[in-house]
Amino acid sequence: MKIGLYFGSFNPIHTGHLIIANYVAYNTDLDKVWLVVSPQNPLKPSSTLLNEHHRFHLAELAVEGASRLRASNIEFSLPRPSYTIDTLTYLTEKFPTQEFAIIMGSDSFQNLPRWKNYEQLIKHYPIYVYKRPGHEVTDTYGARVEILEAPLLDISSTSIRQWIQEGKSIRYLVPDNVAAYILENNYYK
Ligand SMILES: Nc1ncnc2c1ncn2[C@@H]1O[C@H](COP(=O)(O)OP(=O)(O)OP(=O)(O)O)[C@@H](O)[C@H]1O
Ligand SMILES: O=C(O)c1ccc[n+]([C@@H]2O[C@H](COP(=O)([O-])O)[C@@H](O)[C@H]2O)c1
């Protein structure tokens, strides 16, 4: 089975992420997409991060009933910060019969040379890159790349956290069950 790994802080997960994950799961040769919740992104500050177990629970709620999508907490037991090469090395050892690939936006792909051991990463794993405005893929660094034109929603977790703080509704920006859970638990207030 071919599994695409879509990494993120998912702080919180939103409809923009889910549209990408579902699109990739149904428009490529990948069988499944795992939304891998990173406890700590190596290139982002951790000050605004909701506890990883809460973020993972929100991701689980978001994929309820989506047969090709899964939330993964695999990085919770690995050293911090979460380097993608380390996670993939671990997963490949743990699931030797599965084939893993990486899913990322063209913005992240432009940054790839700043990632830990990125040469190793591109040598061993194919990358599915979905286009994001303002971030052309001009150099593929020799990676096995498939470029995708997925539908995009112009929202971010940052804007969602801000709206919650301002007391605005986040309806439709995240699935209903995710919005309800965030409200009930006073997250991001
Ligand atoms: N609306 C979107 N459409 C497509 N990709 C997105 C969108 N928002 C985020 N992404 C990408 O999804 C991946 C995981 O996202 P991440 O958890 O960092 O969310 P984010 O919304 O960018 O978060 P934040 O605003 O907190 O930085 C990142 O590679 C990010 O570039
Ligand atoms: O491995 C690395 O060096 C590395 C550097 C930056 C980001 N990542 C991974 O990419 C994910 C998305 O990152 P970002 O910056 O696009 O939100 C993040 O959650 C990490 O799993 C990984």
From TrEMBL:
Its EC number(s): 2.7.7.18
> Sorted alphabetically, which CDD domains does this protein's record hold?
NMNAT
Enumerate the GO terms in the molecular function aspect: ATP binding; nicotinate-nucleotide adenylyltransferase activity
Please list the residue ranges annotated as the Cytidyltransferase-like domain. Answer: 5-162
Q: In which pathway does it act?
A: Cofactor biosynthesis; NAD(+) biosynthesis; deamido-NAD(+) from nicotinate D-ribonucleotide: step 1/1
- Which keywords does UniProt give here? ATP-binding, NAD, Nucleotide-binding, Nucleotidyltransferase, Pyridine nucleotide biosynthesis, Transferase
Gene Ontology biological process terms in this record? NAD+ biosynthetic process
Show the catalytic activity: nicotinate beta-D-ribonucleotide + ATP + H(+) = deamido-NAD(+) + diphosphate
Purpose: Catalyzes the reversible adenylation of nicotinate mononucleotide (NaMN) to nicotinic acid adenine dinucleotide (NaAD).
Recorded hits in NCBIfam families, A to Z, give: cyt_tran_rel, nicotinate (nicotinamide) nucleotide adenylyltransferase, PRK00071.1-3
The protein's name: Probable nicotinate-nucleotide adenylyltransferase
Q: Which organism is it from?
A: Chitinophaga japonensis
Q: What is the lineage of its organism?
A: Bacteria, Pseudomonadati, Bacteroidota, Chitinophagia, Chitinophagales
Q: Which gene encodes it?
A: nadD
